Amino acid sequence: MSVFRRTKSEPVETAPAKPGGKGRPTPTRKEAEALAKAKARAPRDKKEMAARARQVKSENSRVIREAMKTGDERYLLPRDKGPVRRFIRDYVDSRFTIVELLIPLLIISLILGYSGSPALGQLSSLVVMATFLFVIVDMVILRFRLKKQLTRRFPDEPLKGTTYYAVMRSLQMKFMRMPKAKVKIGQELPDDYR
Predict the structure, then answer these.
(1) Less CB within 10 Å around the terminal CB: N or C of the chain?
(2) Whether the predicted model's global pTM rises above the 0.70 cut
(3) 37: pLDDT strictly greater than 70
(4) Are residue 84 and residue 106 in the same domain, yes or no?
(5) How many other β-carbons are positioned within 10 Å of the β-carbon of residue 98?
(6) How far is it between the farthest Cα atoms of the chain?
(7) CA angle 103, 107, 113 (to 5 degrees)
(8) Are both 105 and 134 inside the same structural domain?
(9) Count H helices, E strands: the chain?
């Protein structure tokens, strides 16, 4: 019978990472205890205390940012919590708005405005005015349609501040919205948000 022994020069084969795994090995007890001790140790001076406070604040901010991206209800700001606000976010995100085209239209109007031709300059100002008119009309339509949906879906909920919340969200470009959009434009929304 032969016994296989690994020498120090031979590489160790590692198993491939599992999909959905944490991507790092579990720390040993010794490492975990050392980390816990380091966290529990009292700071020696103001500089160390301030550095530790910054580190804790940075870590908390990172966790909150990640939760805002995923829409985790526990970490959302109070203005974003609840089924009514979740429905408003989904309703606004499922609509196509002129705000999605706002930056390209403004760039076109700038190019037309700086072309040197008076006719193109007038066309530029016309494009800007028409864009803002379309945005205002879209906000009015959003308000009336949203109120109708909210009274149908949430008859016993207070609806104070919902119009402002919806308008502010719809004035942002979709990729900039926080919490991140979870529905696509034109997607059908579920009936129950409780």
Answers:
(1) N
(2) no
(3) yes
(4) yes
(5) 18
(6) 96
(7) 140
(8) yes
(9) 6, 0
